[in-house]
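My main concern about presentation is that the manuscript never shows what a single data entry looks like. Each protein is reduced to its one-letter sequence and a matching series of backbone shape codes. For the editor and my fellow referees, an illustration may be useful. For illustration, here is how one protein appears when written out as sequence plus structure tokens:
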Amino acid sequence: MPMLTGMGLAITIDVLIRVSFVLAVSLMLAYTTRWNAALRHAILVAGLAAVFIVPGATLAMRGLPVPRWQLGWLSRAGIDGPAEIALVSPQPPNEPQYRPARRNQPAPAIVRTRRDEARLDPGHGASAQSDKPSLGPRAWSRWNALYGRLMASCLLWTLLSGAIVKVIGLGLSLVRLRRIVARAHPVTGDHILSVLELIQGRIPMRQPPRLLESAEVSSPVAAGIIGNYVLLPTGWAGNLLLGETLAVLGHESAHLARRDHHVVIFQELLASLLWFHPLVHRLNRMLNRVREELCDNYAISLVDRASYCEALLHLAVGRPGASLRGATSMWPGRWSLEDRVRGILDERRPTDTRISNVARSATAICSLAMCGFIALPQLTASPPNDRFVTVADGDSPPRAKASLVAHEMTRSITRAFPVTGEKMLRFENLAGRVELVPGKRPTVEVEATVRVGGLAEGDVRRLIDEIGWVEVPAKDGGSQWGLSFPAEDYPTIWYPVSGEAKADSDTVHYLGHEVRIANRRGDSTPSVEFDLRISLPPGVHVAVDNAVGPIGGKSVDSPLKLSTRHGAIKLGDVRAPIDAATKFGDVLISRLDADAVVQTGSGGIELSRVTQGHVALSTGSGHCRVVLPPESGFRLHYSGTRPLELVGGGASRLSALSGDRRSEMLSRGTGGPSITVTSDTGDTVIEAGP
């Protein structure tokens, strides 16, 4: 079951808070107008419409650059997502200074502390412990946060499942209502037609309703959502007196004339979506009652009050407790017949059936104003559009009265790793760029630039402060180093560098955990970049496994094993054996003077100026291009489904075809590189000079 965390959880709670406020305001205003049923009905209908408008307006305002009041209720609760507004205070001199950065600007200077720089002598063994102290209470805080989010997610998924069941039930009820109407029998008779003609003259309608009898209903209902029908129980039409017929048909015709069936559908939909909300059920009960009061006003305009009450008493015998969903019934739930009759007989009761045009316009304007007023405050924090505050070198941090702070923080961690003989030093990276440069010291030095964003300022600060180098067991029995990341708290991250992640999302294994990496910003997902600059002494054996991001380097004199899932590998002046592999990225190597093994999935391979060594190239659907110096010899074996293209002459060529695969041998002179190319569906071009 997916877990709602961060921004997704905050948005859900945000919408529920606003909807609850709309319901509460509507109910309070309705209580103040109990003396006027028409005005109370208008207020409740406006509140019902606002309940549907406010969530959409809130979500729309999150993406609009409009000024909003920053209340930060959910920010202080610690469940919001990216922070737009926060307070910044100067940090102690011994703490690392966090500086916001932008992708298209160089990161401001970062003060490195001694605890972030761990240099080991060549004779010391690498420690299996993290270079950061134990988290202690902070780990318990993370566990409590994870537990709270898990419980909230379970609750929200339960509410969502209930809403789905309720909406399906509403759809089935409408289908059942349509079938009842289809099976009903029309009611005919001169007295019925005369009553309907009288009602149409007193209650304006486009057309008189069709009167039907059905054994599947036990009280009069108006089925306006599927047509202009009034359903009566079987046998009622012939047993009702004239006054009772006039009262019943007048009441149900009023529902159809007022189009109450439209409001009923929205009520049922709201009750299905927010089936757990007590204020929703309270609003629906009040709206059902006031709707019946207004239709009673229509009825007592046709018959006198006492006769209408007698008709109600007569019709109430044996009436059911529940009505059809999607239809309006004469008997709303939780309204006693005694209270209804008392209200009808009250001579002070206003008999208005509608409000004036001025009052209707004022109600609509107030409803829209209430929607804007409720949707405007910023309860949760949302990321601003390119609004960052950068602290230049030498400047002091802003004081507490400053309000804007960047949603991204940067930290630098430098560490030296000892080299033990020919033992391979392995690094694993989650997402970011890896740069390989020649080193002058006998140890491998790694400068990591960590960027974290997309969360509240406090969450970003805690997350970036907990990142440090850790050593974990490797699959082959050795060990490897990587920057720690709390995957149990953040199972999904966003890598913000566009174009480097080829798929919408992918799940990778990092330091023994599964992490989902997305190339699109999502709710409650932090943006993470671990850019590594690795200084390599000559001859050291190093392996780098990068999940997402490119790997590049020049003047490589160290045997390397490089792999990246999403991203390109670009190397120049390679004078030591190379093993490079990608799944979705390209591999480009210029001036290769050593053995090489290159494998790609859908990425292309390009080697320029290959002078010597044993080179093995393998690709799935990528294209392959090899450029050889024109004066040197070479030997090449090709196997693939597409023809091999040779540019240049002076080479002997031998071809063979086996099924849909081609096999070719190329050679020129003696010496030079020995190259093997295996391709499935990509093109292969060999440029051997003139």
